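Look over this today:
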Amino acid sequence: MHKQIYVNLPVKDLAASKAFYEAVGYTFNPHFTNDKGAGLELGENLYAMLLTEDFARTFTPKTLIDNKTSTGGWMCLSCESREEVDALVAKARAAGGNIPGKAEDHGFMYGHGFEDPDGHHWELVHMTGMPPQG
C-alpha cells in the first residue's frame, strides 16, 4: 500500500504558519520549503505541505474554503501518551492556536485538539486499546 502521506494545507501567511508549527515543536524539511510552501514534518513518513493560497490555487480549480468558518476535513495524529497530547495542545495554545473543545477520555482513547492560525483542525489521540464492541 502507501508508504507516505502528504496533506496539502492552504495558508494565508506562510511565515506565520511556519512560526506557529515551530513553536508547537515541529520542523520543516528544507528540501521541500521555499517562499510558496513548506514541508512540515509530522513524523516518520507523515508530512503536511503548507502552501500559500496563490500556490495552492494552481493545483485545483475549486474555491479554497476559509477553515475558520467552514470544515472541509481535519487531521488526526496519534501520540505516545496522554501527556504528549496535553503538551502539544498547551504549546499550540501558547503559540496562538485556537482550542475548540475540551479533552475527552473514552477509556480506550484520550484526545484533544487545536486549530492553527488558518483554522486547520488537528486532533491528537492516545490509544490504549480498542473501542467496546456493539
Notes: The first helix runs from residue 14 to 24. The chain is about 20% helix and 35% strand. The mean pLDDT is 96. The two ends are 30 Å apart (CA to CA).
